[in-house]
Design goal:
The protein is an alpha/beta fold. It contains 19 helices and 18 strands. Helix 13 links the parallel strand 10 and strand 11. Helix 3 packs across helix 4 and helix 11 packs across helix 17. The termini are far apart. The mean pLDDT is about 90. It binds adenosine-5'-diphosphate and magnesium ion. The site of adenosine-5'-diphosphate has 16 residues, from helix 3. Magnesium ion (MG) binds next to helix 3.
Length: about 475
């Protein structure tokens, strides 16, 4: 029998929070890691994306946190700014019954000034990228001498990105008796070495569920000539009517080219690759999460670790070079017991790649023929997928620092002044200095006018539709 959160000796407060968040049971990595971490043990863990690693390390941190002062107690290192803000968002959600909890994101690509201000006032948890955290250590704006927990999240990725030296310098500034939690998708020698140098008798947790998820996902492959793939993709989307779909490409150039073509066809598309400005990445991800964008086209690097719940469909526009990557991509659909669906395109000369994937994942892929390729013409398909997103995103020029809360925005839209129905309002994301709210497509224009003519928290904000 799988344990419940009650079995994990968490406080009533945190059990209440996870219940409010709709977590029914701990995920396997949570069930294993939480009791160990509560006992103060070091943990080295591996489990697939989307398996709840953030709550696995956050709940024990929250259990022990002291909010009487503003002493920094935990540092979480993540490889990218997106992951930092995602982890911080999850910590804030889980910390909703810890009044006064201060969580700060310290990552590159953002101005350093506001970070200096917040650090000066004091925070309880810092989530940051190694580069920027080290910057702060060198400026002496950050002091790690009293932390009790250090988390290295996606440690293999941090090493791949060349952060080893920065990480070592950071760790050397933390107390020797700290608790160290290390999560990694893979365990190459470099990770083993990192663990050996910086962890004390770590408990190892390995959750082998990736292949299970993958085998419960319906997986179909189509032999499609690269020149016909755009048409085949339009057809797939028209056939399956997914709310959210990720299309994986192997190269940045394929991502840009495909997104250009789909945009021309009138589809609602976001493109994610390594060369984008952080602000653009954040905007693209927010729109995809809140269903203002239906199709996200991404490279593996850009999509790695990003939390996107409930994908109806994953498409491999190109077969990845390594079977592990196939399993990673496909693992993004069919989570949490939902039925997943993955489609891959391949060329006849890629049969050895296919065989490698089948033997690695222990599955046999269902080969099908895309009938569309002989018959339907693209023009007709293009018409069908136009203007297809369920929601639109509005930008509001006030965020956490202006004390904006989701309830303020919801109130302005639905109250007497707003007049919209609660069901027309989707996800609300509060960032430091701005917020995004998703509204149902048919009432988006109305919502824009209401917000522009009205006030939020008694104040005027700039409101813009997000392109
Ligand atoms: P990982 O770091 O392993 O990739 P995350 O920590 O980002 O995964 O979690 C993925 C999603 O699952 C998040 O939206 C999180 O809120 C949700 N989640 C975490 N734990 C549970 C749970 N026990 N039950 C349901 N959802 C959960
Ligand atoms: Mg994670």
């Amino acid at each position: 029998m799988t344990p419940t959160f009650r079995d994990l000796s968490l406080s009533a407060e945190l059990i209440q929070v996870v219940t409010e968040l709709g977590f029914v049971r701990p995920t396997p990595v949570q069930a294993q890691a939480i009791p160990l971490l509560l006992k103060g043990k070091d943990v080295i863990g591996q489990s697939q994306t989307g398996s709840g690693k953030t709550a696995a390390f956050t709940l024990p941190i929250l259990e022990k946190i002291d909010l009487t002062g503003r002493q920094l107690q935990a540092l979480v290192l993540c490889p990218t700014r997106e992951l930092c803000s995602q982890v911080a968002r999850e910590i804030r959600k889980l910390g909703r019954r810890h009044p006064g909890l201060q969580v700060l994101v310290v990552s590159g690509g953002m101005p350093i000034g506001p970070q200096l201000g917040s650090l000066d006032k004091g925070v309880h948890i810092v989530v940051g990228t190694p580069g920027r955290v080290l910057d702060h250590l060198l400026r002496e704006s950050l002091e790690l001498g009293e932390i009790t927990t250090l988390v290295l999240d996606e440690a293999d990725r941090m090493l791949e990105m060349g952060f080893q030296e920065d990480m070592e310098k950071i760790i050397s500034r933390t107390p020797a008796n700290r608790q160290t939690v290390l999560f990694s998708a893979t365990f190459p020698k470099t990770i083993e070495a990192l663990s050996k140098s910086y962890q004390r008798a770590p408990a190892r947790i390995t959750i082998q569920e990736e292949t299970q998820t993958v085998s419960s996902t319906r997986q179909v492959i189509y032999e499609v000539d690269p020149l016909e793939r755009m048409k085949a993709l339009l057809w797939l989307i028209d056939q399956n009517k997914p709310e959210s779909v990720i299309v994986f490409c192997n190269f940045k150039t394929s991502v840009t080219e495909l997104s250009r073509q789909l945009k021309e066809a009138g589809a609602s598309v976001g493109a994610l690759h390594g060369d984008l400005e952080q602000r653009d990445r954040d905007r693209i991800m927010a729109k995809f999460r809140n269903k203002s964008t239906k199709i996200l086209i991404a490279t593996d690097v850009a999509a790695r670790g990003i939390d996107i719940p409930n994908l109806d469909l994953v498409v491999n526009f190109e077969l990845p070079a390594q079977p592990e990557i196939y399993v990673h991509r496909v693992g993004r659909t069919g989570r949490a017991g939902q039925k997943g669906f993955a489609v891959s395109f391949y060329s006849s000369r890629e049969t050895s790649k296919l065989k490698a994937i089948e033997s690695f994942a222990g599955i046999s892929l269902q080969r099908k023929t895309a009938t569309v390729l002989q018959s339907t013409d693209v023009a007709k398909l293009q018409g069908k997928i136009q203007g297809d997103a369920a929601m639109r995103t509005l930008f509001i020029s006030g965020g956490r620092k202006e004390k904006m809360r989701p309830g303020d925005i919801l109130g302005a839209l639905t109250g007497e002044a707003g007049g919209l129905k609660g069901t027309d309002i989707g996800k609300i994301e509060i960032h430091d200095h701005f917020s995004y709210v998703a509204v149902a497509f048919p009432v988006a224009q109305l919502a824009l006018e209401r917000l522009r003519n009205g006030r939020i928290k008694g104040r005027k904000f700039r409101i813009e539709p997000v392109k």
